[in-house]
Amino acid sequence: xxxxxxxxxxxxxxxxxxxxxxxxxxxxxxxxxxxxxxxxxxxxxxxxxxxxxxxxxxxxxxxxxxxxxxxxxxxxxxxxxxxxxxxxxxxxxxxxxxxxxxxxxxxxxxxx
Amino acid sequence: xxxxxxxxxxxxxxxxxxxxxxxxxxxxxxxxxxxxxxxxxxxxxxxxxxxxxxxxxxxxxxxxxxxxxxxxxxxxxxxxxxxxxxxxxxxxxxxxxxxxxxxxxxxxxxxx
Lengths: 112, 112
Prior knowledge:
Radius of gyration of chain B: 13 Å
Largest sheet of chain A: 6 strands, mixed
Number of helices of chain B: 0
Strand content of chain A: over 45%
Shape of chain B: globular
Mean pLDDT of chain B: 93
Largest interface: A-B, 23 and 22 residues
Order of helices and strands of chain A: EEEEEEEEEEE
Helix content of chain A: under 10%
Largest sheet of chain B: 7 strands, mixed
Low-confidence stretches of chain A: none
Oligomer: heterodimer
Order of helices and strands of chain B: EEEEEEEEEEE
Distance between the termini of chain B: 34 Å
Number of strands of chain A: 11
Structural class of chain A: mainly beta
Strand content of chain B: over 45%
């Protein structure tokens, strides 16, 4: 299986919360990241969490890390149509030369 | 503007040709990367370059070669282009290893 896995699609209504999930396999992770990619653009760093943290909040974004289950989630509160994009989870590990490994991305579609 | 910039944005060429993609960062970062994103949006690391140390993904064909004239530049040369090389190629940089990546806007390569 892949090192970092995400579901491919998520559809939500404007104003609702979105939760994007990610699982990873390597327990030697150092940092876990969330990136956002809009059409025709590069990846933009949204937030990241150090592997010894459980939670990080930044305005509308909340990251939860369950290290035991190797599960990472990104919650977007009050989702807006401008949040429609592909969201990538990524992991760096001490065994992987600290080069980020990305999941396949979750396409978030926000309906008005 | 401080950024990671890639040129060209679009590149259309025929099979068998040799081409280069340029990347420059003015962020003062020590580490640079090349990623390939396929039609299903999967991002795969090709190369990482840090303090003259090159880390190569072993699955990358040797037709691909990175060249770094200085710390701010990491160019990608591709020889004998094949149809399967068609993809979006992203350059990225980070302050040092194991820190967040800053991405360029990508180069869409189409091989006909």
